[in-house]
Amino acid sequence: MTGHTNNSVAVLLACYNRKQKTLSFLESFTKQQYYQNGAIDIYLLDDASTDGTAEAVKALYPAVNIITSAGNLYWAASMIEAWRYAMAQKNYDFFLLCNDDVVVYENALENLFNAYKLAGNNGTILIGSTLDPNTSKISYGGNRLVMHALKKTTYTLIEPDETKLIPCNTGNANILLVDAETVKRVGIFSNAFIHIFADFDYTLTAYKAGIKVFIAPGFYGICERDYFTKWLPGSKSLKERIQYMYHTKGLGYKEHLHFVKKHYPAGYAAAFTKLWLKTLFPVIWDKFRKKDTLIESSNLK
Are the beta carbons of 176 and 126 closer than 8 angstroms? Predict the structure, then answer.
């Protein structure tokens, strides 16, 4: 499978006030020969950006389907809206989820669909790994999730092989190829997640349903790893710490607990307790867990 595809593909992405990054993604994506020769439609959910993102995209990339919202969505909710909109237009063979802060490599699309051929069957999710331009190390991709008895859930970010598919059970949606059979069997992102956990939940749910989840060979673009703190220090007021715990861009309390309850109910009590301990008694983490201050943050708002 080289040069072109007869398969129809809906590319889904969301943006909010990151005009230059959004334009950089579109530039890298649309200049690929595979895109130009293929039946590929791009759907961009712009959540009421005030920096002129939608206007710039419309002017420079008129083929992009721009969906506007009122400004009250976060990343996962925006991707859900884009996904639903695309599905209402026609029956696509594939959905390619991307973050707008990715710059894809020249042959990323062709390589991704060649990798899908290696998978050999419908009912497959492919995860494209990215490199951090600052460190030249893997930034996003496929993860192996392990749920330890009476311990925290751990995620191991897996380096892709140069030529072979690597099976995994969950991963990031920075570059995520989902075929129509997968959507038929497990649907799209869950409404329970408006920002974080949506991609991890989706890939893990699909894996449990018998969908094959693979890390595609090699790397597919660059994307700087994004971080935020796992807790607010004791120097912050209790009110601020509680707000941070509940906020979807903070600890994502409701989404966090929903994810644990759905996929690892035995760990629910421990997760609940840990979230409150971090919030009520942050001195423990301030003193003993200084190396554990950063976790991934999705990009929207």
Answer: yes
Q: In the chain, where do the E strands start and end? A: 8-15, 39-46, 65-68, 94-98, 103-104, 124-131, 138-140, 142-147, 153-157, 166-167, 170-171, 175-179, 212-222, 227-229, 294-296
pLDDT digits (tens, 9 = 90+) for 176-215: 999 999 999 999 998 888 888 899 999 999 999 999 999 9
- Sole residue written with tokens 């490599």: 105
Instruction: Answer yes or no: is pLDDT of 40 > 70.
Output: yes
Question: For residues 126 and 119, is the Cβ–Cβ distance under 8 A?
Answer: yes
Distance CA 164, CA 214 (A): 10
- For residue 182, with 0-12 CB atoms within 10 Å meaning exposed, 13-18 middle and 19 or more buried, which class applies? buried
Q: Which two tokens stand for residue 301?
A: 């708002």
User: How do residues 54-63 score in pLDDT, each as one tens digit?
Assistant: 999 999 999 9
**Which regions of the chain carry the CATH code 3.90.550.10?**
8-222
Question: Domain 8-222 in CATH: superfamily?
Answer: Spore Coat Polysaccharide Biosynthesis Protein SpsA; Chain A (3.90.550.10)
In the structure encoding, which two tokens stand for residue 30, read together? 């649309």
Whose CA is closest to 223, among 141, 130, 135? 130
Name, in order, each residue with C-beta under 8 angstroms of 133's C-beta and a sequence gap of 6 or more: 222, 224
